[in-house]
Amino acid sequence: MTLFGPRYPEEIAKRIPPGQRLVKGWPVLHYGPIPRFDEREWRFEVFGLVERPISLTYAELTAMPTTDVVADMHCVTGWSTLDNTWTGVSFRALAEKAGVRPEAKWVIAHCDLGYTSDLSLQAMMEDDVLVAWAHDGEELTPEHGFPLRLVVPQRYAWKSAKWLRGLELAEHNVRGFWEARGYHVHADPWREERYSYQEGPGAELEP
Ligand SMILES: Nc1nc2c(c(=O)[nH]1)N[C@H]1C(S)=C(S)[C@@H](COP(=O)(O)O)O[C@H]1N2
Ligand SMILES: [Mo]
Predict the structure, then answer these.
(1) Which CATH number describes the domain made up of 37-199?
(2) Whose CA is nearest to atom 1 of ligand 1?
(3) Which of 1, 99, 141, 149 has the fewest Cβ atoms surrounding its Cβ within 10 A?
(4) For ligand 1, which residues put their CB under 6 angstroms from it?
């Protein structure tokens, strides 16, 4: 029970993780400039420990069977938004298409201009993880990640990498942009996994 700060109706309150507050609208948050999109040279790739590496044009990717996911979003700086509808292709569908090798334990997201994030394959295989190009029925705007972003609803939003260009399957973890700067490898907001000092010794061995 918090004495100060917002009070939410019970239905809403139970959807807001500890230390988070609801915001109006949809904040824009990222490090660095917004990359520009050149459809002729743009490819989305799934590579690394896979049987059949994937390289798709934007038209090919968006022609794949699509999925809609309704999900909440939690930024580690403290803001949350509820009931975002994302449209895209599920990670599971991509993993199946590529044929993930049994040694793969981690997924590294690669973005334009060098941003990366990492997650365990186990976290990525949740059924609400997708690569998305639309939000609430509208094409993503450039500041929110157009033409493509990763969405991992059950982890803090820095894992939902914008301007996504590739997903790499790996046996060993490679810490991403924020993970290398003191943020948690697993980033579950319900466990308040914000900072790397909270990680147990086996965090990068046992997802
Ligand atoms: N490529 C890239 N993706 C990124 C970031 C970034 O700096 N670069 N910031 C992350 C962070 S910290 C958050 S909270 C969300 C914010 O997404 P939004 O701007 O669409 O709200 O994007 C994430 N994805
Ligand atoms: Mo964030």
Answers:
(1) 3.90.420.10
(2) 162
(3) 1
(4) 26-31, 75, 111, 115, 144-145, 157-158, 160-163
Task: Domain ranges for the chain, please list them.
Answer: 37-199
Label each residue of the chain as H, E or C. CCCCCCCCCHHHHCCCCCCCEECCCCCCCCCCCCCCCCCCCCCEEEEECECCCEEECHHHHHCCCCEEEEEEEECCCCEEEEEEEEEEEEHHHHHHHHCECCCCCEEEEEEHHHCEEEEEHHHHCCCCCEEEEEECCEECCHHHCCCCEEECCCCCHHHCCCCEEEEEEECCCCCCCCHHHCECCCCCHHHCCCEHHHCCCCCCCCC
Query: Which residue has a Cα nearest atom 21 of ligand 1?
Result: 28
Average pLDDT score over the chain: 96
Residue 66 pLDDT: 98
Distance 4 CA to ligand 1 centre (A): 29
Q: What percent of the chain has pLDDT over 90?
A: 93
The alpha carbon of 128 and the centre of ligand 2 are apart by a number of angstroms equal to 19
Q: Kindly list the protein residues that place their beta carbon closer than 5 angstroms to ligand 2, a single-atom ion.
A: 75, 157-158
Confidence of residue 188 (pLDDT cuts 50, 70, 90): very high
